[in-house]
């Protein structure tokens, strides 16, 4: 009997060890399969599989539009109220009267603010794959206003053509140009752009929050990277990993002020802060409030000051003179820069309706082509992302079907 009991106990242990081995094997097999699926998704790009990528991107667009339509239908009361307000505004816009000047002013300001908010959203949305609209639009705009302010001796540019075109005013402002004067001139554009970047940080937050509330484990590269970093030791040797861990710890431990600190400085790792806040169910207004204050006020003033100081008249002249001192190719680079600056000064002193001076040089041509290339890359990245999202959707559907069998 004793021997049978010992044998039975040994058999149970061996069976338990075998089940454990089978479980580990199954987990390993599942991880390998997910890794293969991830590699297959990443290979779904226009330059490798153009037809399949376009097909998947189109199907994902249709599914997304369907989901948005269903969400709007669930909130049809709010949609109906917005439609009523839009109809009233359209009536006020079309009816002639003394109120038209106020309507036109509101329309102009709204479109101007919406333009910069949209550019801000494009800059930060997409977990680091957004369009760098600060370098393409806001930075050059601030630089143009700065150069024009020192050249004209005023920031009271006539409207129109400002902001589409900067023309020096007939009268020079009293007191001259100061740093604060230029900051005040571009404050609205900069703050709206910063608010747009804060809105663009919401998708990672909602993604991680929804995953935590549902108890699901999404097969997402950024989310999995986040989970791995949470489990890593603080003695990690890789600098990038240590920096990411520092962001996670600051946001998790300090809360509002930690989010504010991360959002107030140029930080390419802030997307991970959004995932952290969503994962730990940080309240929405705590996350968005700190992000909005940090990006639209603190960080925006830091970037704005940097651009204004860099493009101040005396600093630009010193940079051009130093460029000519570079041996070899320095003078050949100095000449087109001087021609470009001179062309911009001539444009500033032309009145509206007089035409624009000729003499666009290769710097303007190069900048236009750089902008075009970056916009094309952004569109291609959107198509690739939509196609990979649809592939991920089909793979998850297969996993669910296999579990139900």
UniProtKB/TrEMBL annotation:
Biased composition (Basic and acidic residues): 10-21
Protein keywords: Membrane, Transmembrane, Transmembrane helix
Transmembrane regions listed in the UniProt entry: 78-95, 115-138, 250-266, 272-293, 305-326, 370-387
Tree of life domain: Eukaryota
Entry keyword Transmembrane: yes
Annotated segments matching region Disordered: 1-34
Protein name: Vacuole membrane protein 1
UniProt organism field: Coilia grayii
């Amino acid at each position: 009997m004793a021997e049978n009991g010992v044998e039975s106990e040994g058999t149970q242990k061996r069976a338990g060890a075998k089940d454990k081995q089978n479980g580990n094997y199954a987990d390993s097999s599942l991880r390998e399969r997910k890794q293969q699926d991830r590699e297959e998704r990443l290979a779904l790009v226009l330059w490798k599989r153009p037809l399949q990528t376009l097909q998947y991107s189109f199907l994902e667009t249709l599914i997304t539009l369907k989901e948005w339509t269903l969400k709007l239908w669930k909130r049809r009361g709010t949609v109906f109220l917005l439609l009523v307000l839009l109809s009233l505004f359209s009536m006020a816009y079309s009816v002639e009267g003394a109120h038209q000047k106020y309507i036109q002013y509101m329309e102009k300001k709204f479109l101007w603010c919406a333009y910069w908010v949209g550019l801000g959203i494009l800059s930060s949305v997409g977990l680091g794959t957004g369009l760098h609209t600060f370098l393409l639009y806001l930075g050059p705009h601030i630089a143009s206003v700065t150069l024009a302010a020192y050249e004209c001796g005023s920031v009271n540019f006539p409207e129109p053509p400002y902001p589409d075109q900067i023309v020096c005013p007939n009268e020079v402002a009293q007191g001259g140009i100061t740093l604060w004067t230029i900051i005040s001139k571009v404050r609205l554009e900069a703050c709206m752009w910063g608010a747009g970047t804060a809105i663009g940080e919401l998708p990672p937050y909602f993604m991680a929050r929804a995953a935590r509330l549902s108890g699901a484990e999404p097969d997402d590269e950024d989310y999995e990277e986040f989970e791995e970093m949470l489990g890593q030791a603080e003695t990690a040797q890789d600098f990038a990993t240590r920096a990411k861990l520092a962001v996670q710890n600051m946001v998790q431990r300090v809360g509002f002020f930690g989010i504010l600190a991360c959002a107030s400085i140029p930080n390419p790792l802030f997307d991970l802060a959004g995932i952290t806040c969503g994962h730990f169910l940080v309240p929405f207004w705590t996350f968005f409030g700190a992000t909005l204050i940090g990006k639209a006020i603190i960080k925006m003033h830091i970037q704005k000051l940097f651009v204004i100081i860099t493009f101040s008249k005396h600093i630009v002249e010193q940079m051009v003179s130093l460029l000519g001192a570079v041996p070899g190719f320095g003078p050949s680079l100095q000449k087109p820069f001087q021609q470009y600056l001179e062309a911009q000064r001539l444009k500033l002193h032309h009145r509206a309706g007089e035409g624009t001076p000729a003499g666009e040089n290769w710097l303007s041509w190069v900048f236009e082509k750089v902008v075009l290339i970056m916009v094309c890359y952004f569109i291609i990245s959107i198509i690739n992302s939509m196609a990979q999202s649809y592939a991920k959707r089909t793979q998850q559907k297969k996993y669910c079907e296999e579990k139900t069998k």
